[in-house]
Amino acid sequence: MAWLLQYRCRAIHGYYLSVWRIKGMTTYNVAISPVKRLAPLPRVQVVADYISDTAHNENLVIAESNKGVDDASLRIKDVNKSYQLQDTALNVLNDINLEIKPGEFLSIVGASGCGKSTLLRLIAGLDTSYTGSIIYQGKAITGTDLSRGIVFQEHRLFPWLTVEENIALAFSATSVSKEERKLRVEKQISIVGLNGFEKAYPHQISGGMSQRVAIARALVLRPKLLLLDEPFGALDALTRLKLQQELQRLWEHEGLTTILVTHDVEEAVFLGDRIVVMESHPGRIKRIVAVPLGRPRDRSSFLFQRIKADVMADFAMVEVE
Fold it and tell me: Exposed (0-12), middle (13-18) or buried (19+): which is 173, by Cβ within 10 Å?
């Protein structure tokens, strides 16, 4: 017997798009009409034909991925993090279990305050006050390490240093020779497409270019794990799209294990092999969604849009009737 579902998708300004599914086929109602805003919608599992299976193995939440697991994997087990506010403990992360495979691109999405950035700081070793374990390359993370690079939302460039000097600053705590430093800086400037701007100061380049400098500074030390904390969040839409493509190219070129924290669901789908969906109070993993799409990815494709809608449903942006 044929079955029929209608999705009513919430748009930004209270508009809705009707989506009909009949035996695996989806059609979109062209007419989009304004209606009254509804109250926040409950989470509804959107029907999808792509792989979104979550396996449980000794409390590790793992979705399907084409990457293999070995000693170079990043393993997060039973991680809890809290802050002391006067006489009350604020639980920020609760029972985080996750495994990231070598060469994988993992996207983490969630509302503000769900602990995404806090988790990234723990992985970077910038904060070691937590319970549980974070193991990378067979060793517990107990502090910062050159094998892990991090890029923040703000580029954090020194205004009195040039592009090449800001990148070379990453070598300040290393024993790399001056000749090797020069060669690596030149290579990274070329990789991120900043040839000709080596002598420019931060105020002489755009925000997008400044963020490329920050990425080059993280990559010049040749880390095995790249951590990205909303690196494009402060950029305009067009620059953001361009740098997403650049980041995908860099990831393919360098073969790095990469973890991206973002509020942008489309960005998460465009870049990630898997998407970790987090929820708040306390911060915890709600589910993990596999993204079985090849690269380069077409944002307008049916499957891309369906995965995006599925993830957005976790944030009460989709209603199923």
Answer: exposed
